[in-house]
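INFO worker-7 received task bundle
INFO bundle size: 2
INFO processing item 0
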Amino acid sequence: MRDGLSKMPRVYDAEAVGKRMRTIRTMLGLSQKDFAKFLGVAPQQVNQYEQGSSRPSFAVALYLKTTYGVTFDWLYAGDATHLTVGLAHRLAEVEKSL
């Protein structure tokens, strides 16, 4: 049995992930339409991410990680431990303003 995995919570907070997606978009100064172009998805999909009614795909999360340095830990769990100090500070400032 994979004991370590069995102890991990299996909760996905779609609303919190949506808020973090909005935080990234706002930090970049992009509209939903422009953010959708960067991500390669329809603008409606970005809206669904931000509303928490749809999950970002692995491809979208990987793009955010490789392009902007956003970690999976932060995007999906809100854990900023592995973000660069500068990025963590900028994201926190934007979150406060939303």
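INFO item 0 finished
INFO processing item 1
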Amino acid sequence: MREDFFTPEQMETAKEKGISIENLAPLFRGKIAEPYFVRYEFNEELQSKPIHTTRHSGQEFDYVMSGRLKIQIGDNIEYLEAGDSIYYNSSSPHGMIA
């Protein structure tokens, strides 16, 4: 987190229970991509429930830095671990949990 350059308000894009999303380029002009740092907390209760999905325009690139990520794109579910990445059309329903 670059709190020495950006205010926490500029960086924190969203905060949901168990999820924090930080915009890594909040002031970059003319950008064609939106880089975020997203942190998911593991929640045992969510493991046996359907993953909440969303859709929006564009593409999404996710890279797992540590831990494990369960990601659903459409009807497909993948498990990613540290060092894994995935790139997909974000107009497809997608969601993830740690």
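INFO item 1 finished
INFO post-check item 1: The chain has one helix and eight strands.
INFO post-check item 1: The longest strand covers residues 68-73.
INFO worker-7 idle
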